[in-house]
Amino acid sequence: MSRVGVLVLGPAGVGKSTFCNAIISHMQTIGRRAHIVNLDPAAEPSKYEFTIDIRDLISLEDVMEELNLGPNGSLVYCFEYLLNNLDWLDEEIGDYNDEYLIFDCPGQIELYTHIPVLPTIVRHLQNQLNFNLCAVYLLEAPFVIDTSKFFSGALSAMSAMILLELPHINVLSKIDLIKDEYSKKKLKRFLNPDPTLLIDSAKESVNPKFDRLNESIANLVDDFGMVQFLTLESKNPESVSTILSYIDDVTQWAEGQEPKEPNDQVEIDDL
Ligand SMILES: Nc1nc2c(ncn2[C@@H]2O[C@H](COP(=O)(O)OP(=O)(O)OP(=O)(O)O)[C@@H](O)[C@H]2O)c(=O)[nH]1
């Protein structure tokens, strides 16, 4: 018996729900069972039905209306409410065994970087419900092709990695939006870059007084192995399938397989 949970994380609008739908669709096609767990109390309707939906427990709209709070305060309230009612989640998850649960998380990254909501849920899923978990952290490819934005995105991914302490897969989403050769070339530098190249590239566009800071960040990101990104185009089944195979590996779904080196399969020239 094994339970696999995939936490899909990343800033607002990066393509988390689209990826959740794409992976469910792909798994259905190949005859595997998976379900979406919606952890966003403000979620829009999805193509696939949520098997478990936090909005059945509490919704952002109700909290804003009844407690007269703003959207951020209401979101924090919803999660504190969930943490006080984790038995609801236990009951909903019930007996889902031998299948994937894909957790579609809200885009407010402070929920995993500033307040310990997701770390608490993660420990609960691991310790009480025996989940094998991994985090898939999405960043938008068109956003990160500037070095300074890449640093900012990589640091936010690293922060989630350190806080959640889970096997972590970084993904650059919306790769189909990188069309011109110049941008493709720039993006290629970020898939598995040399820190020296990152530093040189930062020097091209950032005020020299930040050189030492950028150098430290590039080395830190490199030391943590954080600069390895897979690429995702949610409409492309092959791209979704590649990410699924990494998830299978890190969650040991497919036993006996050697873990792959991220980026081995990334062929930016094929874009
Ligand atoms: N071109 C392109 N657009 C995409 C891709 N994935 C998602 N989008 C678009 O990006 C927008 C946001 O996608 P969502 O899946 O709602 O993003 P999200 O991260 O779940 O958003 P929040 O729940 O608000 O944090 C939508 O208009 C999607 O159609 C992709 O691979 N390529």
Q: How many domains, as an integer?
A: 2
Strand content: 5-15%
Q: Could you list the spans in which at least 5 consecutive residues all have pLDDT below 50? A: 256-271
Helical residues, percent: 40-55%
Oligomer: single chain
CATH topology of the largest domain, what is it called? Rossmann fold
Bound molecules: guanosine-5'-triphosphate
Number of strands: 7
For the terminal residues, how far apart are their CA atoms? Answer: 39 Å
Mean pLDDT: 84
* Architecture per CATH nomenclature, i.e. the level-2 architecture of the largest domain: 3-Layer(aba) Sandwich
Query: Could you give the order of the helices and strands?
Result: EHEEHHHEHHEHHEHHHEH
Largest sheet: 7 strands, parallel
CATH superfamily of the largest domain: P-loop containing nucleotide triphosphate hydrolases
Shape: globular
Using the coordinates above, name the CATH class of the largest domain.
Answer: Alpha Beta
Instruction: Give the spatial strand order of the biggest sheet.
Output: 3-2-4-1-5-6-7
Number of helices: 12
The class by helix and strand makeup works out as alpha/beta
Radius of gyration: 19 Å
GO molecular function, one term: GTP binding
Subunit structure: Binds to RNA polymerase II (RNAPII).
Protein name: GPN-loop GTPase 3
Function: Small GTPase required for proper nuclear import of RNA polymerase II and III (RNAPII and RNAPIII). May act at an RNAP assembly step prior to nuclear import.
